């Protein structure tokens, strides 16, 4: 499944930016002044390419983008994992975001194809990793940024940045736990696949408040979601929103405890999920700036490309 | 799948005790002085009987037990759920355990067949339910007992009892979360179905300590279990024990916060899981008395039977 769009322009192409994730490919032909000249998307993520190969997939997308031979290509994401195209070893924290490009590896192939590294918090007591999000972080922060960045999703990330340097981060299995609990646990009886309760309504806010007040109680709150319905206090249609509130509230409570409260918080992720987090974080007193996730990736790839090839490419 | 054992005895049978759960049937022919005269076990739990009927299953087990016609029968567990044989409505907390029998319902059939009720904490802010465990609580406590009871399992229960009265309880999805996370999440890559690390070894104790120190951090600790292996700090063989430690530690931390620390703690459940909890709770400074779960059910059914039919039956 691929799609491509092109827009003609006078400014010459500078490089191809690729966000190559576990289950998706997103490529952009970028102009020297950072504009998107063409876009090509597909579902050929790392899992797909691990068997069929990465080079042919990239070639197809370059053709769709209309990229000329010799245009340099910069990739971020799971294509650089050990089980990806070629391993771009993790940079270890603490590390400056504007030094990301120094950890890029070059693919042994025709042309100039590079993959940005992920970040690792290589501490036995707080081991953590990211791959792809580091590029978004570079995209949404200034070189002297101090504050927190929150990236909601399957594996939500919270990142503490001091003067442009990533000093600590933590990953929460929020999105994935929502899926496995709703599908495979006894709560499958209590959560409708498409709940009729609005995602940010009362059940969500109550779940959020419960978790923020007693974040250690998640595994009890999960059972109570079911018990509330058995005892007639709540409807099944409200289950999904409450489950979402409990998991997001637990994440936020722990992240604030772990990373402290910063004045400035950048939120990467628009759409429904981004709005849920924005409301929750604003209620916690944060000054939230939200940025679209793809925009963040593109901007980060653009900054790293300038660091590698110079602004004149 | 059923099995039955018989032992002849001089003391006449008094009643039949049945623990009828979601997926199991356990029946005992009891003598007037509380001894087991025969036992019959099967996998015909509530889920099985909901379609095939409860009465025929009971009749078969009574024949295996060699029970005489007219022997009274007392049942606890899911057979009394709304979707069971006949609903024995929940008794609401606070409630005395020695009043359980007052909530028993009588089945409309030949002979004297009764089902004990479950307990409900019918509060909108702390909804919770149990069915089957209330009988074990009766079994392991004296009429004036004050303290905590912990019942580990798929849905672990912590119960606060004051002078023989259940005043509060909470259920933790500990066992079920272990299964769904180990089978259906990204941690399937990090947890061996049969880990080679001893269940109560260093990885378990570290997981326990991590959760007790930061119980709000469960959803981050889960991802770190995977990250620790990616970064070479831990082996996959240790994953199951660490996951178990994280979940049990989170449960204990929240239960102590919710119910306070009691001098006296009764632990229902022997075997491997019981030993893990016993070690963890003893390390927390509790004076733990462990009782086998089946023994607890039988004793509870015995006490309730005397309350219903008198000691002379």
Helicity of chain A, as a percent range:
25-40%
Secondary structure category of chain A:
alpha/beta
Q: How widely separated are the two ends of chain A? A: 31 Å
Overall mean confidence score, pLDDT of chain A: 92
Give, in order, the helices and strands of chain A.
Answer: EEEEHHEEEEEEEHEEEHHHHEHEH
- Main-sheet strand order of chain A equals 1-4-3-2-5-9-8
Assembly type of the chains comes to: homodimer
Rg over C-alpha atoms of chain A, rounded to the nearest angstrom: 21 Å
What coarse outline of chain A follows from CA principal-axis ratios?
Answer: globular
Low-confidence stretches of chain A: none
Written description of the protein model:
The structure is a homodimer of 313-residue chains. Chain A is of the alpha/beta class. The first copy, chain A, is built from nine helices and 16 strands. In chain A, strands 1-4-3-2-5-9-8 form a seven-stranded mixed sheet, with helices on both faces. In chain A, strands 7-14-13-12-15-16 form a six-stranded mixed sheet, with helices on both faces. In chain A, strands 6-10-11 form a three-stranded mixed sheet, with no helix packed on it. In chain A, β2 and β3 form a beta hairpin. The longest helix of chain A is centred in the C-terminal third of the chain and has 21 residues. The two termini of chain A are 31 Å apart.
């Amino acid at each position: 499944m691929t799609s491509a769009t092109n827009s003609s322009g006078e400014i010459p192409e500078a490089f191809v930016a690729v966000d190559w994730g576990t289950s998706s490919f997103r490529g952009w032909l970028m102009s020297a002044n950072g504009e998107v000249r063409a876009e090509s998307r597909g579902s050929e993520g790392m899992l797909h390419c691990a068997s069929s190969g990465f080079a042919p997939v990239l070639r197809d997308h370059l053709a769709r983008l209309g990229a000329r031979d010799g245009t340099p290509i910069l990739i971020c994401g799971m294509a650089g994992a050990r089980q990806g195209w070629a391993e771009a070893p993790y940079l270890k924290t603490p590390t400056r975001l504007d030094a990301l490009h120094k950890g890029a590896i070059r693919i042994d192939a025709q042309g100039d194809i590079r993959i940005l590294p992920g970040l690792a918090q290589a501490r036995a007591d707080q081991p953590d990793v990211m791959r792809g999000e580091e590029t978004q972080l570079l995209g949404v922060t200034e070189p002297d940024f101090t504050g927190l960045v929150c990236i909601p999703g399957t594996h939500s990330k919270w990142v503490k940045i001091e003067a442009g340097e990533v000093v600590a981060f933590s990953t929460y299995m929020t999105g994935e736990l929502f899926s496995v609990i709703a599908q495979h646990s006894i709560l499958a009886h209590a959560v409708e696949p498409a709940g009729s309760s609005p995602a940010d309504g009362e059940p969500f806010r109550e779940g959020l408040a419960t978790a923020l007040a007693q974040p250690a109680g998640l595994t009890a709150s999960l059972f109570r979601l079911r018990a509330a319905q058995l005892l007639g206090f709540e409807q099944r249609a409200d289950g999904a929103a409450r489950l979402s509130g409990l998991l997001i509230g637990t994440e936020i409570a722990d992240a604030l405890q772990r990373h402290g409260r910063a004045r400035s918080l950048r939120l990467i992720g628009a759409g429904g999920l981004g709005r849920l987090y924005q409301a929750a974080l604003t209620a916690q007193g944060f000054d939230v700036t939200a940025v679209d996730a793809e925009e963040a990736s593109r901007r980060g790839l653009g900054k790293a490309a300038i660091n590698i090839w110079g602004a004149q490419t």
